[in-house]
Amino acid sequence: MRTSVVKKGDEFLRYEIREIVEVAKKIEALGVPMTYENIGDPIAKGERVPDWMKETVARACYVDSTYAYAPTKGLESARKFVLERFSDSSVCTPEDVIFFNGLGEAINKIFSNLPNNARVIGPNPVYPSHATAEAMHHGGKAITYSLDPKNGWEPDLIELENKIRYHEGIVGILVVNPNNPTGAVHKRETLEKIIAMAKEYDCFVIFDEIYQNVVFPGKTVIRLCDIVGDVPGIAMKGISKEIPWPGSRCGWIEVYNADKDSEFKAYVNTILVSKMLEVASATLPQAVMAEVLSHPKYPTHFAARVDKYRKRAETGVRILSESKYLKVPSPDGVFYLTAVFENAEDEETGTKLKTNDTRVRSFVDSFPLEKFRMDKRFAYELMASEGICVVPLSGFECPLDGFRMTLLEEDGAKFEETCKKIVRATNAFFEPFPKVLEKIPHAANLTSMDEVV
Ligand SMILES: Cc1ncc(COP(=O)(O)O)c(C=O)c1O
Measured on CA atoms in the order 24, 27, 29, 31, is the torsion positive or negative? Predict the structure, then answer.
């Protein structure tokens, strides 16, 4: 090409949650039945949409206005409703709400409308769309602060403050609460310190609160609107996880304190104008969400879902913790379980696992495994040996190795079985290979567990 058509930073354009499925599908085509534990889509995992909900949506389909464009910010009725239901109308008005085609779109617009040198520091691990959008807008690696699995995945505030202090480009702090992938609900005290930091260093805050209600009994989510004070902020919310209707592609942002900072106000306006260029977001989910969420059957339906995730979390933590190679902090909510590898000697650790078919082995070996992080090699071995697809933790911009699985499995017995298989694969992956080989004649000629078993 006369001039490069590849944007700087394209190597950071990754979305492991879906990319790994391409590999899983090919392994499945070679005859390994696959259990997909990678994506946070309850419907894809078999959760039934209740008839009353389908009927509500169907009725809306008979109303002509649901076929029209919505205003750019979204239907006024929907903006009023979300403030009442999910927020605090003393902190923000319907004019400060903007709907998007899923929060995924909002994430993209929030980062791509910042100047390249204006950086947003986000947690690690983090939902990859945030890290990728930050990296792409800047043309380099995303900038992050650590969440500590030994401290309930709370943010390392010292690291966060040091990075903000010494990196003048940082103008925004991202918090994902409740957190994907860890399932942690952050403490009020932690969040208040982050707000205080934003104020001290003249930054704005972004709180992704898409899971704000998907929390287990006894856990309270402190929302940005509860503590924001006069700091400029954006809260991100949606119905993908809540109703759950991820296919509706419906999320929104709530902008707080735009009037308190003219630069922040101008930035929010660029987000709005870039939305305007696309006209508006889908009308139907906005038109119908109030009726669905206010339906008399909704509270019991939602409570049953959350209770199922809680039970799965208990089972998952119990079974996975049986492996000395896995650290599995109990989640406070959300529908994921994140395990961190422990007791591995180094990044090179990890044995190839037994596969039933040499074609599967050859397929996995066709990847440059030696260049992969340990957890990605594990994820590939797990698919090949046990037919389970999880997402390596490195796919969440995380320096720790491990994996994320979902808590969405409908069948409790199958979920237990999946966890047991993961434990079996983990132990086999980390058992020191040479010790096994010591007992086998001509061991020096063997290159993988395939040949051992
Ligand atoms: C933390 C978080 N934010 C945003 C999204 C995007 O949600 P959607 O685009 O479906 O609204 C997801 C989806 O999994 C998520 O986990």
Answer: negative
Same domain, 220 and 314: no
Single residue among 249, 264, 293 that ends a domain in this structure: 293
Please indicate, yes or no, whether residues 353 and 231 belong to a single structural domain of this protein. no
Does the C-beta of 183 come closer than 6 Å to ligand 1? Answer: no
Whole-structure pTM value: 0.93
Ligand 1 pocket residue status of 110, Cβ below 6 Å: no
| Ligand 1 centroid from CA 107, angstroms | 9
Q: What is the CATH number of the domain that holds 253?
A: 3.40.640.10
Average pLDDT over all residues of the chain: 93
For the residues 134-143, what does the mean pLDDT come to?
91
Identify the pLDDT of residue 438. 46
Contacts of 255 (CB under 8 A, 6+ apart): 92, 96, 97, 98, 233, 234, 268
Q: List the 233-238 sheet strands across, edge first.
A: 97-100, 251-256, 233-238, 204-208, 170-176, 119-124, 144-148, 154-155
| 207/316 same-domain check | no
- Quick check: CB of 123 below 6 Å from ligand 1? no
* Ligand 1 touching residue 180 (CB < 6 A): yes
Number of domains in the chain: 2
Contact 126 CB / ligand 1 (< 6 Å) = no
pLDDT of 394-410, one tens digit each? 999 999 999 999 999 99
Q: How far is CA 294 from CA 85, 94, 196, in A?
A: 9, 19, 36
Q: How many CB atoms lie under 10 A from the CB of residue 344?
A: 16
Q: What domain range is 231 assigned to?
A: 65-293
Peptide bond into 125 cis (omega under 30): yes
Tokens of 256: 């707080």
Distance 4 CA to ligand 1 centre (A): 32
How far is residue 187's CA from residue 177's CA, in Å, rounded to a whole number? 10
Between CA 265 and CA 275, with CA 271 as vertex, the angle to 5 degrees is 140
| 2 CB neighbour count, 10 Å cutoff | 4
- 439 versus 343: which is more confidently predicted? 343
Predicted confidence (pLDDT) at residue 444 exceeds the cutoff of 50: no
What length does the chain have? 453
